[in-house]
Write a structure and sequence with these properties.
The chain is α/β, with parallel strands linked by helices. The chain has two domains: about 60 residues; about 180 residues, no CATH class. It contains eleven helices and nine strands. The strands form three sheets. Strands 2, 4, 6, 8 and 9 form a five-stranded mixed beta sheet that branches. The chain has a two-stranded antiparallel ribbon with strand order 1-3. The longest helix has 27 residues.
Length: about 325
């Protein structure tokens, strides 16, 4: 009887240890996966099970995955998975009123709801190209804060300037620092995209203007604060969608952007001046480390090839 009790206690202890380790890995979004020619949705099911995260996939994204990773962050694994099926991923933060509206947001992310969908007409909103040009002009003029803040209406994010991850190419969300004074909620939500690969979308009809100052807070905290200030609930899920759904600028937008861009020689001179700044050099080194840690070999090769071609935005002055 005593031996049986000991065996039961040992089994309970092992189960508790396993459960605790699994919970810790899920909390940290750590993934180990071995996939050999496995359908995409089967792989995503395994990722959901390991991380306890919600991952939505667009109906037009499909393929088979060959991948072996051990103890890697979910974001890194999603990079590799998305590359193999020609898609992109983002962290979606809908700001919503009811559970029905949240479910509708998930359907929009899956591409199973008609577009544009009443309630979520801003889900695939493109960057503010006029604000981008204004930021570039501010950078060329050397205006204070132009290199790290920029006009509030401008954002990076998936499909934005700098490719996936926003202005600095980061694949992890950076700490958020913002100062919103009487700011429309959609403008505030779009501004968060420059801090990482996120898509913050207020439900249509969210009009309560935001007065909020945040300094060096996690993205989840920033979204929660924005939702509260907008009188909305918030949710978080990962969304994998086709590159074709990125929404390209119209010819009129392209022409307007080109006209508003500063002179190329002025921009080059400004970049050369920035390159002498120790703080700027440190930020570039940190970006390089992030890119190396959060990219696949083929992505690194493609980036090196762009740099060899040279030019601003393609491996130009650093």
């Amino acid at each position: 009887m005593k031996q049986r009790t000991i065996l039961i206690l040992v089994a309970v202890g092992l189960l508790a240890a396993y459960t605790g380790r699994t919970a810790w890995r899920a909390h940290k979004d750590i993934v180990s996966l071995e996939a050999h020619d496995i359908p995409l949705r089967t792989v995503l099911k395994k990722l959901r099970w390991q991380t306890w995260e919600s991952i939505e996939v667009a109906k037009d994204v499909d393929g088979r995955i060959n991948l072996t990773v051990t103890d890697q962050p979910l974001t890194v694994v999603l990079d590799l998975v998305a590359e193999q099926v020609g898609s992109r991923w983002s962290v979606a933060y809908p700001l919503y009123t009811t559970k029905a509206k949240l479910q509708l947001a998930r359907k929009v992310a899956e591409g199973t709801a008609a577009q544009p969908q009443p309630g979520w007409t801003n889900w695939n909103a493109r960057p503010n190209f006029a604000a981008m040009a204004a930021r570039m002009q501010a950078m060329a003029n050397g205006e204070a804060g132009a290199t790290n803040a920029g006009p509030m209406g401008m954002f990076g994010g998936p499909g934005g300037p700098g490719g996936p991850g926003g202005m600095d190419g980061a694949t992890e969300a950076k700490p958020v620092t913002v100062d919103w004074q009487d700011t429309p909620p959609l403008e505030a939500a779009q501004a968060l995209r420059r801090f990482g690969r996120v898509k913050v979308v207020p439900e249509d009809g969210t009009t309560l203007r935001v007065n909020l100052s945040l300094k060096e807070v996690p993205m989840d905290t920033a979204v929660a604060k924005l939702a509260k200030a907008s009188n909305r609930k918030w949710a978080k899920f990962y969304a994998l969608e086709s590159q074709r759904r990125q929404g390209r600028p119209t010819e009129e937008e392209r022409a307007q952007f080109t006209q508003q861009m500063p002179d190329r020689d002025q921009m080059r001179a400004r970049f050369e001046q920035m390159a002498q700044d120790p703080g700027f050099q440190e930020r570039m080194e940190q970006r390089e480390v992030r890119n190396l840690l959060n990219s696949s070999p083929s992505q690194r090769a493609e980036r090196d090839q762009r740099r060899r071609r040279g030019g601003p935005g393609r491996g130009g002055p650093r």
